[in-house]
Write a structure and sequence with these properties.
CATH class of the largest domain: Alpha Beta
Distance between the termini: 12 Å
Strand order of the largest sheet: 9-8-7-10-11-12-13
Helix content: 25-40%
Low-confidence stretches: 14-81, 85-90
Number of helices: 9
Structural class: alpha/beta
Radius of gyration: 21 Å
CATH topology of the largest domain: Rossmann fold
Oligomer: single chain
Shape: globular
């Protein structure tokens, strides 16, 4: 893959400003449906456009294109000696702050019914549901990677206690008095709010069995992967009162089908916007360019 090193170096100069144009796109030449493409250009400076896409990759049409996947990982496609395309991870953690901040926002939305009250007022009503303060409450964090760590930092800053579960505990967190690693069963049984920040496995993480272990009236937040939860089990738990609320930023299909779960009055949904911030996209673009330069320099 041939790259224009001078052009790439210009893109990461601190006095240059990236210009983003967001749009939907579809690539009929491939079997992939590409959505939410981002074109990065430098008007008057650089003639080429550098494309980043959300979801899957489309065919490379230029000699030096940048790809960024807003689902949580950044990649660049490189041609190997056999003439095949390899996806190389480039910008891990670029969106972690955005996802963590959205998680905190969803937590407040759940415990104070913010979307529901907003809709009530706009409908001409005056519903005033009681809420819950988070100080002193227990937040269960499943997965303590980059996103989970930032969620913990913000939550403890507001006086929450943390129960954490991860196959690979973070040493710096293990030494803190306000963070305790424990089993998944203990986390589910003690947490007032559970938030997921881990990859999906071969089996559902939050299904019927896990929900029976959860604290009565607790809330669940999922900004990680839709495959982590069993939608029908969540719906049953919401209807029975076992769960008081569910917030999701991830879905099996985007946009999602409006199922009974998503239409439930105690479910809050956002359109996979966790990492979709100006700062996250900018960090990803600059990190991707730096990695491309490293690759070109050998």
């Amino acid at each position: 893959m041939v790259g224009d090193k001078e052009t790439l170096e210009k893109m990461i100069r601190k006095d240059d400003r990236l210009v983003y144009e967001f749009y939907d796109m579809h690539s009929p030449e491939t079997s992939f449906d590409v959505q939410y493409g981002t074109s990065i250009t430098y008007p008057g400076k650089v003639g080429n456009e550098y494309f980043m896409t959300k979801g899957h990759f489309h065919n490379i049409l230029d000699m030096a294109e940048i790809y960024y996947c807003l689902r949580g990982h950044g990649y660049m496609l490189m041609e190997n000696p056999e003439g095949e395309w390899d996806a190389q991870e480039m910008t891990p953690g670029a969106n972690s702050r955005g996802v963590a901040e959205l998680t905190i926002g969803l937590m407040f939305s759940l415990v104070r019914s913010i979307p529901q009250v907003n809709n009530s007022i706009k409908s001409g009503d005056w519903d005033r549901p009681g809420g819950m303060e988070i100080q002193g409450k227990i937040l269960g964090v499943v997965g303590t990677g980059m996103i989970g760590q930032q969620v913990i930092s913000m939550a403890t800053g507001m006086g929450m206690r943390i129960l954490a579960c991860d196959l690979y505990p973070n040493e710096s967190l293990e030494n803190r008095d306000d963070v305790q690693y424990c089993s998944m069963e203990e986390l589910l049984g003690e947490s007032d709010i559970v938030t997921l920040h881990c990859p999906a496995g071969n089996t559902v993480l939050i299904g019927r069995t896990a929900i029976t272990q959860m604290k009565q009236g607790s809330c669940l937040i999922n900004t990680a992967r839709s495959a982590l939860v069993d939608d029908q089990a969540l719906l049953t738990a919401l209807e029975s009162g076992k769960l008081s609320g569910y917030a999701a930023d991830v879905f099996d299909n985007e946009p999602p089908e409006l199922t009974a779960l998503l239409l439930h009055e105690r479910v809050i949904t956002t359109a996979h916007i966790g990492g979709f911030t100006t700062e996250s996209v900018d960090r990803a673009a600059r990190a991707a360019v730096k990695n491309i330069l490293e690759i070109l320099e050998g």
